[in-house]
Amino acid sequence: MAPSSRTEALGRLDGDDELVRAILPHCRLTRGGVWEDPVRGHRVGVCDAADPDEVARLFADVRVRTVINDPPYNVIVGGVKKSDALGKMTLAAYLEFSRRWVENAVACMADDADLFVWLGADYRDHFRPLPDFMVLMRAVEALRAKNYITVRNQRGYGTQKNWMWIRQELLHYAKGNPSFRVVYTDIPKVLKGYYKVVGGAMTENIERSRSETIRPGNVWIDIQQVFYRMEENVPGCYAQKPLSAIERIMRCCSDEGDVIGDFFAHSGSTLIAGERLGRRVITCDLDPVFAEIAIRRLERFRATGKAGWQWQSPFPEVTGDATESDGGDAADPDDGRLF
After folding, report:
1. Is there a contact between 141 and 158 (Cβ–Cβ < 8 Å)?
2. Strand 201-203 and strand 196-198: pairing?
């Protein structure tokens, strides 16, 4: 049962160093460790996305079809206490960090592959780091810009003195000439117009379309922002990305059996999306707590079919809340290979 107060059982992990210290003994991985899934071959590691040796060890000889990265935005939001890992760095340091992880991503990508990057823009700091990252990417010869997607959040933030901030930026780059599969939303087509003559007859756009629903463009208005009332919610993980967004990317830019890379595991959304769509996912996080969350989330999904914890805690042994036995507790070291 969810708490009657309808509050999450675990606070924000990026702003509570004491809570993180309490959780760490329950994490099965430490820096450099890798957990390999015995069922589908997923990998979850604790490594630095900017370190070429650690990334090369995690991916080994695997070449990735699609990389979906949600790196730290270098933006302080809501006045939350900065953690040691996510404090805002100088722009020069952030761009150097970005350059390094991008190089590592390119090195593990297949000849024809896609890279997606979620990024933020701080209007209080001249919209950094978004435009600076885009300029940085111009120098990456292996990649070309393909699209600039905006995901509309239903729940925004801001003051009464400004427009509400309700957007998430998603950059799409391509290496080589990767294939693209058109998928459609659930939004029905209702707008008539755009008439033209086809085969001697006047037609309008709905008659000529391939689907009765709208094809997604580069403004996504049908993706529900994750919050505590949703089953897929993972308490403690701020700015969790929706499974529906990750799955849209996978459906359009990969095939069943392909390998998906994610250098910033956070809540494990890419791992769960890959599990649901039959893709193999290799992911990592610098923080052992988020790597553990990703593994536990996969175990919980397989045991219960639930994609998250909603109000409940991924670490009941720390928070003390009573949860059903659902595969979310720390696993036996033999459940998955550690190396």
Report:
1. no
2. antiparallel
Task: Name beta bridge partners: 34.
Answer: 45
Low-confidence ranges of the chain (pLDDT < 50): 1-4, 81-85, 325-334
Instruction: State the angle between helix axes of 52-59 and 91-108 in degrees (0 to 180), rounded to the nearest 10.
Output: 30
Of 110, 180, 120, nearest to 146 (Cα)?
Answer: 180
Q: Note the residue count of the chain.
A: 339
Three state DSSP letters for 271-331: HHHHHHHCCEEEEEECCHHHHHHHHHHHHHHHHHCCCCCCCCCCCHHHHCCCCCCCCCCCC
Pairing of strands 143-157, 219-220: parallel
pLDDT in tens, 22-38: 999 999 999 999 999 99
Chain CA centroid to CA 65, Å: 16
pLDDT at residue 3, as a whole number: 46
* Confidence (pLDDT) at 79: 53
Q: Is the dihedral of CA 80, 84, 86, 91 positive or negative?
A: positive
Say if domain 13-185+222-323 classifies as CATH 3.40.50.150: yes
Tokens 């094809």 locate to 215
Could you give the CA distance from residue 233 to residue 313 in angstroms, rounded to a whole number?
Answer: 10
In this predicted structure, what is the pLDDT of residue 323?
52
Strands 337-338 and 121-122: unpaired
Helix (H) or strand (E) holding 35: strand 34-36
**65 near 289, Cβ under 8 Å?**
no
The verdict on whether omega for the bond into residue 235 sits within 30 degrees of 0, i.e. cis, is no
Burial environment of residue 124 by CB neighbours within 10 A (0 to 12, 13 to 18, 19 or more): exposed
**Cβ atoms within 10 Å of 156's Cβ, excluding its own:** 12
In the chain, DSSP finds a helix count (H) and a strand count (E) of: 9, 14
